[in-house]
Amino acid sequence: MKKHTAGIHHITAIVGHPQENIDFYAGILGLRLVKQTINFDDPGTYHLYFGNEGGKPGSIITFFPWADAYKGRIGDGQVGVTTYVVPTGAMEFWRNRLSQFDIEYIEAERFGEAYLQFDDPHGLHLEIVEREEGELNPWTFGGVSKEVAIKGFGGAILYSARPQETAATLVDVMGLETVGTEGDYTRFKATADIGNIIDVKMTTGVRGTMGVGTVHHIAWRAKDAADHQEWQEYAMNHGQHVTEIKDRNYFDAIYFRESGEILFEIATDPPGFAHDESYETMGKQLMLPEQYEHLRDRLEMSLIPIEVKSLD
Question: In this protein, which residues make up the domain named VOC (predicted)?
Answer without folding.
Answer: 7-131, 152-269
